[in-house]
Amino acid sequence: PMAPEPPASRLVPEQMAGYLQTILLAAAQQALDLLQVDASQVYTLGEQRRFVLRAGVPTESLAAPEGVASISSGLLRRALEHNEVFTVEDLAAEELTPDEAAWVDAGYRGFAAIALSPPLERPIGVLALLRRTPWRLDRRDAVRLEDLAAEAVTALRAHSLASRVAEVAVLQERLNLAREIHDGLASDLAAVVALFKYYEQRRERDPDDAGQLLPQLRSMTEEILAGARNILQSLRPKTIRSEGLLASLLKLVDQFGRVNLVETNVNIRGEENAIPAEQKEVIFQVLRESLSNVRKHSRARNLWVVLDLSSAPWVMTVRDDGRGFDVRRVAEDPRKVGSYGLVGMRERAELMGGTLEIVSQTLEGTVVTLIGPAERAE
Question: What is the pLDDT of residues 160-174, one digit of tens each?
């Protein structure tokens, strides 16, 4: 009889910042493929968060190593201090920490590791590889591992640079907006105030002559209102203006799921045509903030988004299976424990005449419900 095929490699991530997790998981997967190892792991510095890539065993099995949550001692520490690939031909012949001894108990013998260290910067972590047989790493495989680590570090640096460029772009956009408000709206409002004061003075002396200023005041006020609307329109997400609300939401959720390794499910009912532009913007912004909170705080593996535009009022729910939080504690002192952007979302909902409801308990996930205005704007 034919031997059964080995189970496929599986990712077992601990929640980390999305781009960091994605890049390092890719490096771990490449190490499995290029060097034909049985387990590939990345241990990170900082908050000691890590993820494990298991090869050839089910995720429920304890055959893959679980230990060494910290790299402050043992083989991983020695690998961190090396400027090149660090290897151990046979773990059974080494003096190991209790966590590292668990590798041997799980059947692993060969070990190789390399620090993920950007030039002249603090190391990011260590990429560690394990084989079930003693392993003398040859020069070709050592070069492959060095190249792989260098590629991962380069990708992280490129993303970091792109993030900084994006931050500068946001700052520049804010400066442009401030300049536009100062040179446009503020100046025009100052002119209206001055003209209105002149109107009040003229009204006491010559009411008929003063009355002729009212059409000019009205015209200037209408122009200012139009200018304010143009600024608000420019601030709305371009994807909503060019692609529509539903396509924008689907793209946003899909990108979130792929980058953060979260399973997503989207259910949309009804048409967006009857929803005013201002309400579409609130829907998009609340969803974006909710996804940001899931990425930063939730550690969720699954996310469900339901948008029902066929009901009156319309309703959107965003639910995750993450670790949740104490809603009452956040409400009592958002500055102390972190508001998770809830204040801003509630303000957006209230300004459009709707409501925002949050239901969450520690370790039981979170549900954010956005409810539109009771009466739809015509």
Answer: 666 666 667 666 777
